[in-house]
Design a protein that fits this description.
By secondary structure, the chain is α+β, with helices and mostly antiparallel strands. The chain has eight helices and twelve strands. The model has no long low-confidence stretch (mean pLDDT 88).
Length: 284
């Protein structure tokens, strides 16, 4: 009874872990089934004659074993075969050569099997988390994200997003004059995502795209497609030149980007550590 309770409580904790890590129900069911099958295959050499049923609503599971009925005393593999005598205790009407199915309680596999299952699940969930994180941030490449400074090192800054994921801002991608304190919110674009044993997400504040995204945020006409940024030249932290073009003769592209008395460009300059920004009309 204690082992069964331990197994059920393990599934309950996995349900909580699933909710915490935002792994969808279907994926978690597949992970659970695959993990059970891996443990069964290690114990018996194969899992092909087993059916694993996950009940996500109840938070439990069932394992059913299918075996071929053979003559009494002729069982060569107890995992694949069952004697007629034992089979008739499961299904009184069964006959030699037929298949019978009986439920197997995972707790009876022993503590080692439960431990192996936990390890298999932990490994698979970590792999899923890595893949999901990489996919999420690959879609955000070139977009501005906001993250909090967690640790400042000589060659890079470690930041955490609102889900606690680690992001890296290398020294080479920092604007000269950037100075960070723990807990400070930092804006940057996602520049690239690297995956091998771990997922590493790199940010940039020196990329030209960062300047472009800041203008898109501050100037509604750019976001609406009325003004287009045609070219950007930039020495981060010192100066930048941005060429803009309007498709509506009634709109002054330069004036719209600068704003009345510099109201729109002022916030961008402040974000870029007083970088001197020239906005000019695009000419061919």
């Amino acid at each position: 009874m204690a082992k069964k309770q331990e197994t059920v409580s393990m599934i309950d904790s996995l349900q909580e872990f699933k909710d915490l890590k935002n792994i969808d129900k279907e994926t978690m069911i597949n992970v659970l089934e695959e993990s059970f099958r891996n443990v069964i295959a290690k114990m018996f050499g194969t899992d092909e004659n087993y059916d694993v049923i996950i009940n996500p609503e109840k938070g439990d599971f069932e394992i059913w074993r299918n075996r071929t009925v053979v003559e009494n005393g002729h069982v060569s593999d107890p995992n694949l075969e069952v004697s007629l005598r034992d089979a008739q205790q499961i299904d009184a009407d069964c006959a030699i050569g037929e298949e019978v199915t009986d439920e197997v309680h995972f707790a009876k596999f022993g503590r080692r099997a439960i431990l192996n299952l936990r390890q298999a699940l932990a490994s698979k969930i970590m792999e899923l988390q890595k893949d999901n994180l990489a996919a999420k941030y690959r879609e955000l490449i070139g977009s501005i994200v906001v993250a909090d400074v967690y640790q400042v090192w000589k060659k890079e800054v470690l930041l955490l997003d609102d889900e606690g994921n680690e992001l890296l801002l290398p020294k080479s991608e920092q604007i000269p004059g950037d100075f960070y304190r723990k807990g400070e919110a930092v804006r940057a674009i996602v520049q690239r995502v690297e995956t091998d044993n771990n997922t590493r997400i790199y940010l940039s504040r020196t990329d030209k795209v960062f300047l472009q995204r800041l203008f898109e945020l501050e100037v509604p006409e750019i976001n609406d497609g009325l003004i287009t940024i045609r070219a950007i030249a930039r020495i981060p932290g010192e100066r930048a030149k941005i060429a803009v073009e309007s498709y509506d003769e009634r709109i002054d592209a330069v004036g719209a980007c600068v704003g009345m008395k510099g109201s729109r460009i002022r916030g961008i300059v402040r974000e870029l550590r007083n970088e001197n920004i020239d906005v000019i009309n695009y000419t061919t």
